[in-house]
Amino acid sequence: MPAKIPATVVTGFLGAGKTTLIRHMLENSQGRRIALIINEFGDLGVDGDILKGCGDETCTEDDIMELSNGCICCTVADDFIPTMEKLLGRDNPPDHIVIETSGLALPQPLVRAFNWPGISTKVTVDGVVTVVDGRAVTDGRFAHSVEAVDAQRKLDENLDHETPLSELFEDQIACADMIVVNKADLLEAGQADNLRAALKSDARDGVQVVTATMGALPVDVLLGQGVGAEGDLDARHEVHHHHHHDDDHHDDHADDHHHHDHEHEHGHDEFESFVVERGEIADATAFAEQVADVIRAHDILRLKGFAAIEGKPMRLTLQAVGPRVDTYFDRPFGAAPRITRLVVIGQAGLDRAAIDAALRA
Length: 361
Hints:
The chain has 361 residues and is an alpha/beta fold. The protein is 27% helix and 23% strand. The chain has helices at residues 18-27, 76-88, 107-113, 134-138, 146-154, 165-175, 189-202, 219-222, 284-298, 352-360; strands spanning 5-11, 34-39, 64-67, 96-100, 123-133, 178-182, 208-211, 271-278, 302-308, 314-321, 324-332, 340-347. A 7-stranded parallel β-sheet has the order 3-2-4-1-5-6-7, sandwiched between helices. A 5-stranded antiparallel β-sheet has the order 8-12-9-10-11, covered by helices on one side. The chain is globular and about 65 Å long. The relative contact order is 0.13.
């Protein structure tokens, strides 16, 4: 049975930088064929800008599909599912699907739709990425132009127009696997660190919070999160319900006063990667745990590579997204030298010497 196609859901308010992020991803897709589903809203139309990022081989006009009947979560059955089926039924289906939703539509019902029969066996939610306008949130707003977001909301009669933006924002954070604080170039270093720490404490455990400028994130960081979000809906419950037909079960959410861990977080708007090499490893399981500890200690985003395990002819492939480490034996070393080689990816400012020492310990 072929592996499921991963789908990444990108959400965030109008003006947060979702389109810029997606365009950068398409321009740097490293040969992945990416199909895009855009939740067009009212008469805003699709951002023709996105098409400029499309290379001929990796993404063509046919790879961009628009949903035009209002918010995805209200039109799952008659709009979103048929679009997905069309995409999955192609002779050469894409390597990855990216779905850009309006920031007014909750990501949760969309993630739930991946459990539909006919869809669930073919595709999985790789991760939910929430893009926030770092400057606006720091200034106490949720979007650069609150008026523009409200105007967008009025275009869709399915939405409940009374919900404050702050609640919609909380739901975007509650569903996220990765939060991208965009427009970091407009923030001072201390502001960016404070906002990252605050969002991290509001998000679920293990959610990665990264800063970016002009949506420039390495494709290796953005895609391939492998979360399988559709199997994990309880953890990302809607804190609020924004649809008319849901008004009878409001969760009375006790005001959680989060305590913020003021740990120092490095990294402003750029990313770096480096390689750590070492000899054979005695115990594969212990090594995977060691790697997870190093990732936690240094806020590493991704780590991938392979290891030579004493007495095993096969090499151990290792991939980590945050502290979740996956390992499997993939192929014999054969004539290749039996070394362990790991690539570490994170925000700029990683303590290379300490990470190197810890991984070689």
